[in-house]
Write a structure and sequence with these properties.
single chain, mainly alpha, transcription regulation, TetR/AcrR family transcriptional regulator
């Protein structure tokens, strides 16, 4: 066998022995480190506050190095956003539920609101962190605005009033502003009831918010004009 052929076979063996990319163990270790960082961040955020928390405290809580943190997240905002992403499937499922109601009355909307407040209550600490984060971070407003655009798109599938808000017309632009204002009000409504502990009659508050949503549906539904 020639020397060149021998080198070729040897090279092929080395290639098979060393598969490209990270191994399964390396992927599992990387995921485990990410989970440790997320759990540490959640604990530090909840015991102090978002503003008072530093990246160094998260790193210390996770028991990893600074390089490991920045291998997964580029900032405190980044890891807070990742924590929020853990509950987003449930959040989006609730919006989908409202969209499927089609032309809901106040009672149906009120039931939906109760479920939504309960969702916020189950993740009270996390929503408190995100409320503070979006108020502090420079890109917090943009994140909320993008979220609202996504919500309008989801609701447009079943509610004509929100479909109108997507149209590039004078009526559409007006509906889009009204929809955004409604969503801002709804964000604050859920936060105050489920997180802040608003001292108000729960059923009355839910009924009033349901009226607001129903009023938007009736006022901006193009089929009712």
């Amino acid at each position: 066998m020639s020397t060149a052929a021998g080198r070729s076979i040897s090279s092929g063996r080395r290639s098979r022995a060393r598969p490209a990319g990270p191994t399964r163990l390396q992927r599992e270790q990387k995921q485990a480190t990410r989970e440790r960082l997320l759990k540490a961040a959640e604990k530090v955020f909840s015991t102090t506050s978002y503003a008072a928390t530093s990246v160094e405290e998260i790193i210390a809580g996770a028991g990893v190095g600074r390089t490991s943190f920045y291998r997964h997240f580029d900032s405190k905002w980044s890891i807070a956003s990742a924590l929020c992403e853990q509950v987003m499937p449930d959040v989006w499922a609730h919006w989908e539920e409202l969209s499927r109601l089609g032309d809901p009355g106040e009672d149906a909307i009120a039931d939906w609101l109760r479920h939504r407040v309960a969702l916020y209550g189950r993740h009270r600490a996390l929503f408190a962190v995100m409320k503070e984060a979006v108020a502090i971070e420079a890109n917090g407003f943009d994140a909320i605005e993008q979220m609202h655009v996504g919500v309008i798109e989801v609701l447009s599938k079943g509610l004509p009033a929100f479909a109108l808000a997507l149209r590039q017309s004078p009526a559409g632009r007006e509906a889009r502003v009204m929809a955004s204002l409604l969503l801002m009000q709804l964000d604050e409504f859920n936060y105050r009831l489920a997180v802040h502990g608003w001292d108000v009659d729960f059923d009355v508050a839910v009924r009033m918010m349901a009226k607001q949503i129903r009023r938007f549906i009736e006022h901006t539904d193009p089929d009712r004009r």
